[in-house]
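ESCALATION

Customer reports they have been waiting on this structure for their group meeting. Please prioritize. Original submission:
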Amino acid sequence: MIKVKLSDLANIKMGQSPQGETCNENGNGIPLLNGPSEFTSFYPIPKQYTNDPKKICQERDILFCVRGSTTGRMNWADKEYAIGRGLASISHKKGNNFNHFLKYLIEYNLESILNLTSGSTFPNLTNDNLASYKFYVPEIENQKKISSFLYNIDTKIELNNKINAELEAMAKTLYDYWFVQFDFPDSNGKPYKTSGGKMVWNEELKRVIPERWKVKTLLDIAIFTNGLACQKYRPNENEDSYRVIKIQEMGTGYTENSEFVSTNIPEKVVINNGDILFSWSATLDVKIWTGGKGALNQHIFKVTSNDFPKSYYYFELLNYLQHFKMQAELRKTTMGHITQDHLRQSRITIPSLDLINKLDQIINPLLEKKVKLEEENQELASLRDWLLPMLMNGQVMVGDVQEEFDMVAEPMEIYKKTKEEVVEKVKKIKTPAIKLNPVDVYKRTLLAAEIVFQLKNTYTLGHLKLQKMLYLCQEIGSMNLPMNFLKQAMGPYDNHLARSLDKQFVVKKWFEYQNGALLKYKPLENCGKHQEDFQKYFETEVEQINYLINKFKNFASNQIEAVATLYACWKEAIEQNQLITDKLIITKFYNWSKEKEKFNEDDLIKSLVWMRKNGIEPKTKLNE
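Update from on-call: job pushed to the front of the queue and completed.
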């Protein structure tokens, strides 16, 4: 271990606020960060922009609060930001690959660093404070290993967070579609209200609802059990205990300041992961608890039901939450909370239990997956935090614990202990071997030859673009040709197809593939002679094939790669009976492979708009 100043280890850039007249909330200029109010668990969400940035941080810099009561809070820069005077950006002098080591080194020493702050009411850290602080650090090679190790853990946690946000959004969208918009599937599988399902006027609600639906209260579908005054049940010395779940714990989980209560309390106020909690005083919120076993404090309801599935009363309560917030706001001078009387006065529509259970079968697995991923995140964070001091002081080396943490070595995959299981699953989902029929093989070659013939003078045509064209022709035209497109980093891809086609082209003397040339396919003496057979075998599909070739004629390889992968993600979502949204498709796109991070989300949204406009979309029961 060696002792160094932070200025020897890192680049420090103190923020500087731009002039007020250059700032806006309209998205003009570069996003501006002023402090921790824009921070999340990983990346900031800017509220302002500026046309005259004074100091700019770079992607993957550490964002560090240097002013006020939140001094020391950190986030990651996911892109360039203008930074105001409340922030500093910090990066390792050896490069971004060392920044995770640097962040956790600062966090490990944060208490000592904060002792350097000046100002009694609003503490501040100056550039000199930060630059002169001395750390003990391992040799540079170990810094890199520690950084990679911590990066993989954090990346896995953030990936789980993104998946969970999408799972929640998917479930909520589907609930809204069925039980708010009333477009649940009718007896013919069509959306009820949109397809003309009978709606009847309800005098109590002053609006129409589906025929035979009931109007009742939240108390008719769920039991609301209030927590205890836990200070009356403190554990004795050496007595088993639960941690107390107050409103703060609902928001942040347990902390070192969380209180304890005896286990000798009623079972009805013991909380387990997956339970629904509703904080009814001051902060009104509804959450699925995932913080581990605990005891419920007063001012929070545990919500259960003997008659209805959890997914139903969770979303009904979540949907009614905004109404409760309005009630609390109106009564703030005398009563800023929700009571049993308000629950009794609530009015909700209730469909048949059969319909409720059908929706539950779809969305409950999403909620269960969300709980498991949050449990996984807590375990990862707990193990990381336990190891952090030992890694930083050299007591433990990365190699000593790597085997236990091989589960995060590739954060886009799951753990080493399930590696064999994953491999087996992959084997099972691979497309079964296709029994090759000579006629079908020839048709495949003819289709490829027609695509090459029409695009042979374009510089964008190569193996990748040809494969994506074949994939889209096969899918959109519902062709059953011997092509085995698998999930590869560059999108749907058949590893053997390109070589087979190149060989057939040469045998037929149609084309020769020239690797490295600007025009990849060189015409041979029989170029164009495929067309008679092409017209014969593809008589009914030729118009559609020509349409697709024309649409993608000027597309670069990366553009058609994006479209083909979006198409495959879209198709997968349909096959999984998921509610199709752009957000869902794009999430699947980014989860396809780490290589997909090179694509900008705005461009993907534009691609989806283009695909719909031009009919490049998978078939569903509604559009077949």
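Sent to customer with the following note: The longest strand covers residues 87-92.
Escalation resolved.
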